Write the C-alpha cells for this entry.
Amino acid sequence: MKVLQVVNFRWYNAQAHYGYVLSCALARLGVEVHLLSHPDSPLFSMARSECHGVRLIPFRFTGKGLFGYVGTSGFLRELLAEERYDIVNVHRGEEHTLFSLLRKLIGRFSLIRTIGDRRRSRKSIFSRHQLQRLTDGVICVSRSLLDDISIAAVPADKLEYIPLGIDTALFTPRKGGNLRARLGIADDEIVVTIIARFSPVKGHDIFIQTARLLSRRFSNVHFLIVGYPAQISEDEITAMVKDAGIEDRTDVIVGSRSVFDLLSVTDVGLIPSTGSEYIARTLLEYIASGVPVVTSNVGVLPDIVTDDFGIVVDDITPTAFACAVSSIISSGRIQQMGRSARKVAERKYSIEKFARDTVDFYEKILERKSSK
C-alpha cells in the first residue's frame, strides 16, 4: 500500500500532530508513506529529523483564491501520475477541496478526509457533495464529530472513528528524579497539574479557582500550571494565581521543561477545557504515564476517560472540578487508578493500534472500490 498524507499546517497544532504521528506510525508498520507539508513548518522539520521511513514532499499551497488552486494543480497532477498512490489522506479542509477536484479529474486514488475539528462549513451543499461523492472515506478523531458530519449524510460504511495513538514505550510511568526537590514540593504532597497553552478555551481560570477550593480542603496539595503564552500571558496567569491566594502552593512553568519530568511528579492531571479537545494529546500522555485524570465533557475526552482511572465533569465549574479531584484524593486510589490508566493506554491507544486501525480502514475502502 502506498499512501500520501497531506498535513499542510503552518503551525504545529493538534491536527498537525495527529497527521505527523500517523505518518510515522504507518511507516513503522511497513506502509510506504509520503508526507506532503509546508517546508517552513515545524512539522516538516520534525519529520525530517525524527520520522524515519517517510518521504517528505515540500508543498506551499495556501488555499487562498482560485489562483492558489490553479497554481498547484500542475505539480500535484504530475506527482499523482508518477507515484500512483493507493490512498491520499488529507487533514485540512483547503487540501480536501483541492484533492477532491483532482480525484474527479484523475480518479486513480482513494481519497480519505480526516476531520479533527468542528466547522459549520460542512453543512453547506458543496461540503455534502464533496463528502458524499468525491471522498471515499472519512475518519473522525472524536465520536462527537461523527454526529457533526452525519448532517452531510455520509454513508455509515464510509465513516470511521479513529482517535490519536500514543507511544507507550516513550510515555511510561516514571517516578523519581529531582524535580520535586527543585520545586520545593514535599514527598507527601499531592501534585495536581494542567498542561496546556495559555488560552481561554483551555480553562486556566477554572483550574486556578479549583486549586483555590482544594487548598482549603487539603493541606498537602500542590499545583503545577505548565504551558506557554498564547492569548493569555504568563504575567496574567501569575496574577490570577496571586489573586486566588495560592501562590505559595503553585508553580507556573513556562518553557522547555521536559514533559516526562512533569508527568513523573504529577499525581492527578486536569483538563478543564471549555471547548475543542477533539484530539487530546495531553490526555493520552497522562494515561500512558499512569496519571489519573479529571476532564470536562468536551470533544474526545469522554470517549477515552472511564471510571477506572478518571472522572468526566459535565458542569465545567471550579466547584464541580474540586469535588471530582477531592473524591480521587480522599479515595486513596491514586496509584490504583494510575495503573488502570496505563493498562487502557496500552490496550486501546497504543501507537501500533492507531496505525493498524487506520490501515484496516484504508484496506476496507480499497476493497470496496475494487469490487465496484
